[in-house]
Design goal:
The radius of gyration is 18 Å and the shape is globular. The protein has three domains: about 90 residues, no CATH class; about 50 residues, no CATH class; about 35 residues, no CATH class. The termini are far apart. The protein is mostly helical. Helix 1 crosses helix 3. The protein contains five helices and no strands.
């Protein structure tokens, strides 16, 4: 079945609600936590000097394509009208615009502990207790732009520069190389 992914800024109120409800249902069933476990498992390297699979390696893009397709299939088993929207941060990178709105993913975390306080995934809603993660908290944290140690998303020109690189990746196939599309796109180059 063919379907179209939409820019998150163009989703209707109903589309946002259906997407959120499908995510909440996956979380309730424990399926979302399995996706988190999988991502954590493949983010870390295969041994002390091994390559990672999900990040900082040539497999970054194909691995995430499969991961998102699997997530989308799970969401569509809950609601066949749901697709994973995309976010064009080169057009709108504000921390208060979609997808960081109360009716979608919720806003930034509060200053004291980065706890997300708004939206359907806020801990106070009772729908999103963390059972798998990389922190010791039970609540979702978010620090958009990392105020304490700022980092910015790539600009349109930086993205175009990555797309113009004719080499996909180079040895030693990790985050230390300065050439290659994959490394630039992932933000390491």
């Amino acid at each position: 079945m063919a379907y179209t992914r939409k820019d998150v800024s163009t989703l209707t109120a109903g589309e946002k609600r259906r997407f959120v409800n499908a995510l909440l249902e996956l979380k309730r069933r424990g399926e979302y936590d399995e996706f988190v476990r999988t991502h954590i498992q493949y983010y870390v390297s295969d041994g002390e000097d091994g390559l990672r699979t999900a990040h900082m390696a040539p497999s970054f893009l194909p691995w995430h394509r499969r991961f998102l397709l699997d997530l989308e299939r799970a969401l569509r088993r809950v609601d066949s009208s749901v697709t994973v929207p995309y976010w064009d941060w080169t057009r709108d990178r504000a921390t208060t615009s979609a997808p960081w709105t109360r009716d979608l993913l919720g806003g930034n975390g509060r200053r004291s502990d980065r706890q997300v306080m708004t939206g359907p995934f806020a801990y106070a809603s009772g729908n999103w207790t963390l059972r798998e993660g990389v922190t010791d908290t039970e609540f979702l944290t978010r620090d958009l732009g990392r105020a304490a140690a700022p980092i910015a998303l790539p600009t349109r020109s930086e993205l175009e520069g990555a797309l113009a690189d004719p080499v996909y990746d180079v040895s030693p196939w990790d985050s230390t190389v300065t050439r290659g599309f994959r490394n630039k796109l992932e933000g390491w180059g």
